[in-house]
Design a protein that fits this description.
With 427 residues, the chain is an alpha/beta fold. The protein is built from 13 helices and 20 strands. β3 and β4 form a beta hairpin. It is globular. 47% of the residues are buried. The chain binds guanosine-5'-diphosphate, 6-O-phosphoryl inosine monophosphate (IMO) and magnesium ion.
Length: 427
C-alpha cells in the first residue's frame, strides 16, 4: 500500500477530505488528481474546521509534499485566497507543488458555465458554476491555457490573445459582454508572479518519489457517479474521478497504483440534478440532512439524500478498481429505525445488478432493497468495530457482503480522531 488512491465511490462529498487528511499524517506525498474548485473537502481537527477546494488535504502535515496535478483545472485567484486563508489560520509550514500542465480557469469559463446552464430549458445539470466544464472543454478543444504558459510572460501574452478572440466571439454570440484583453492580462500576470514559485513538472517529482518508495496518497475530487465517462452522463462533472484515471491525471504509470480506497457514505447524497434511484422520502431525508449537515460545502445547496445503493457501489468498484471501502458518517444513521440497502434495480420487468447507461433508464429503475433494523446508541465515541451496537455491525457486514469489499476504515464523526482503521492503510 505504498501508493493509495482515495476515490469518491458515490456522487461526491463522501468524506474524501477527512480520510486524506487522516492518512496524510503518514504520507510523504498527497496529490490532488483532478477537478478544481468545484470540490469542497472538509477537514476537522483540534477544534478547527477547514474547507479546502483546490489545495490538497495533506497540507496540514508540514512533512507532506502536496501536489496539484496536471489533471486539475486551477482558478488562480481562488487558489491564492485559499493559500492566504491557511496562512492566516496558522498553517504556515507548507510544501506545495503545482503542475505546469494543469489548466487555468478564467472568468469567461465561469460566465459560460452559467450561460449554458441558463440556456437549457430542460436538463440543467446544476453545476457549481465554477467554470469547470468550459475549462475542460477548452482543454479538449486545444484552446486552453496551462499554468506553464501563464508563468512565462511572453508566452502568456500571445496565448491569451488568440484564445480571447475565440472566447469573446462565443460570448458575443450568446449576447454576453466580451472580456477586455489588457485588464485580463494584467490581472492574471499578477497571479502568475505569486504562483511561479510553486510550479514544476509534477510528473517528474512523482516518479522520483516512487523511486524512493515514498508513501503517496492520490486524492480524488467528486465521485465515480459524477465521472464524465462512467457517471450518470450528462449529469456529471467534466473530468474523471475514477481510480483508473489517476495515472493519466498525474503522469505516472498505471502499474504504480497499488490500492484504491473507495470512500462511501453510510447512506447516499447527491447535489445538483440527475437520476438518483435510491432517493428517499423528504421526511427522512430532512432528518438525515440535519444530523449530517448535508449542505454543499461550495454552493451551500441542500444535498439530496437516499439509501445506500450497492448497485452503484459495485459499478464504482468495477470501473475504479476499488479494493477497500471507507464507510463514513455512520453516526448520522443513529435512530433511523429501518435501514435499507439497494441490491438490484427492477427495470421493464427485468432485475438488474448493473447501472444502465442512459439517464432515461436510470430514472425508471426501481430500487429493490434489503431491510435491516437500525440502532439507537450514540456511536460517536467508539474506537473499535466490536464496540458498535450489534445492528450497526450487521449493517457493515451486509455492505461487505453486497460489495465483496472489506470496510477497512469507518468514521463516526467529522473529527480526525473519530476514525477507526480496521486494517492498516498506506503501510
Ligand atoms: P468530500 O468532498 O468527500 O471531502 O466531503 P465533504 O467535506 O464535502 O462532505 C463530507 C461532510 O461530512 C463534511 O462536512 C465532513 O466534516 C463530514 N464528515 C466526514 N466524516 C464524518 C462522519 O463520520 N460523521 C459525521 N457526522 N460527519 C462527517
Ligand atoms: P467533492 O470533491 C458533490 C456536481 C455538481 C453538479 C455536477 C457538475 O467535494 O466531492 P461541475 O461544477 O463540476 O460542472 O458540476 O457535479 N459536483 C459535485 N457534487 N461534490 C463535489 O466535489 C462535486 N463537484 C461537482 O453539483 O451536479
Ligand atoms: Mg465535498
Amino acid at each position: 500500500m505504498e501508493r493509495l488512491v482515495i476515490v469518491g465511490s458515490q456522487w461526491g462529498d463522501e468524506g474524501k477530505g477527512k480520510v486524506t487528511d487522516y492518512l496524510a499524517q503518514r504520507a510523504d506525498v498527497v496529490v490532488r488528481s483532478q477537478g478544481g474548485n468545484n470540490a469542497g473537502h472538509t477537514i476537522v481537527f483540534q477544534g478547527q474546521k477547514f474547507a479546502l477546494r483546490s489545495i490538497p488535504s495533506g497540507i496540514f502535515n508540514p512533512k507532506t509534499k502536496n501536489v496539484m496535478a496536471s489533471g486539475m483545472v486551477i482558478h488562480p485567484k481562488q487558489m491564492l485566497e485559499e493559500l492566504q486563508m491557511l496562512k492566516e489560520r496558522g498553517i504556515t509550514e507548507i510544501q506545495l507543488y503545482i503542475s505546469d500542465r494543469a489548466h487555468v480557469v478564467f472568468p469567461y469559463h465561469e460566465v459560460l458555465d452559467g450561460a449554458y446552464e441558463a440556456l437549457k430549458e430542460n436538463g440543467k445539470i446544476g453545476t457549481t458554476k465554477r467554470g469547470i466544464g468550459p475549462c475542460y472543454a477548452d482543454k479538449a478543444n486545444r484552446i486552453g491555457i496551462r499554468i506553464g504558459q501563464l508563468i512565462q510572460p511572453n508566452v502568456f501574452k500571445e496565448a491569451l490573445k488568440s484564445t480571447l478572440v475565440i472566447k469573446n466571439m462565443e460570448l458575443r454570440m450568446l449576447g454576453l459582454p466580451p472580456f477586455d484583453y489588457d485588464s485580463l492580462l494584467k490581472e492574471y500576470s499578477e497571479y502568475a508572479e505569486r504562483i511561479r514559485p510553486y510550479v514544476c513538472d509534477t510528473s517528474v517529482l512523482l516518479n522520483e518519489e516512487i523511486e524512493k518508495h515514498s508513501k503517496i496518497l492520490f486524492e480524488g475530487a467528486q465521485g465515480v457517479m459524477l465521472c464524465l465517462d462512467h457517471g450518470t452522463y450528462p449529469y456529471v462533472t467534466s473530468s474523471s474521478p475514477t481510480g483508473s484515471s489517476v495515472s493519466l491525471n498525474v503522469g505516472i504509470a498505471p502499474r504504480y497504483i497499488t490500492d484504491v480506497l473507495g470512500i462511501c457514505k453510510a447512506y447516499t447524497t447527491r447535489v445538483g440534478e440527475g437520476p438518483f434511484p435510491t432517493e428517499m422520502c423528504e421526511d427522512l431525508a430532512e432528518q438525515i440532512r440535519e444530523r449530517g449537515h448535508e449542505y454543499g460545502t461550495v454552493t451551500k445547496r441542500p444535498r439530496r439524500v437516499g439509501y445506500l445503493d450497492a448497485v452503484a457501489l459495485n459499478h464504482a468498484k468495477r470501473v475504479s478498481g476499488i479494493n477497500h471501502l471507507a464507510l463514513m458518517l455512520l453516526d448520522v444513521l443513529t435512530e433511523v429505525p429501518v435501514l435499507k440497502i439497494c441490491y438490484a434495480y427492477r427495470l421493464d420487468g427485468k432485475i438488474l445488478t448493473t447501472v444502465p447507461s442512459t439517464v432515461e433508464e436510470l430514472m425508471r429503475a426501481e430500487p429493490l432493497y434489503v431491510e435491516l433494523p437500525g440502532w439507537k446508541e450514540d456511536i460517536s465515541r467508539v474506537s473499535s468495530f466490536e464496540e458498535l451496537p450489534k445492528n450497526c455491525q450487521a449493517y457493515l457486514k451486509k455492505i461487505e457482503e453486497l460489495t465483496s469489499l472489506p470496510i477497512s476504515l469507518f468514521s463516526v464523526g467529522p473529527d480526525r480522531m473519530q476514525t477507526i482503521e480496521r486494517e492498516p492503510l498506506l503501510k
